[in-house]
């Protein structure tokens, strides 16, 4: 589902991209666990990037902060996904 969101973004359909990114995060959360599965956290990260691309910085930062905290707890500070999210948040 996230691939469809990415393609929508590439086409310039930012609203469709956002809808698909939200649907992806919700579906993964329901199937895999809302806060415990790395794929769910990847969807959360991707939605934060989508919001950032829409200049919705406050929402994007809030979601990325949540993603960082969950990745720290689930994956640890040395995991590449955690490091990536921390770097994104620092930017």
Describe this structure in words.
The chain has helices spanning 2-11, 14-32, 38-53, 57-75, 80-90. Helix 1 runs antiparallel to helix 2, helix 2 runs antiparallel to helix 3 and helix 3 (38-53) runs antiparallel to helix 4 (57-75). The chain has 91 residues and is mostly helical. It is built from five helices and no strands. The protein is globular and about 35 Å long. Pfam families: TPR_10. InterPro entries: TPR-like_helical_dom_sf. This is Kinesin light chain.
- Helix/strand-derived category reads mainly alpha
Overall geometry comes to: globular
Separation of termini?
A: 27 Å
CATH fold call: Serine Threonine Protein Phosphatase 5, Tetratricopeptide repeat
Give a count of the beta strands, DSSP E runs of length 2 or more: 0
Strand content: under 5%
Largest sheet: none
* Overall average pLDDT: 89
Q: Helicity, in percent? A: over 70%
Which secondary structure elements does this structure contain, and how are they paired or packed?
Blueprint: H1 2-11, H2 14-32, H3 38-53, H4 57-75, H5 80-90
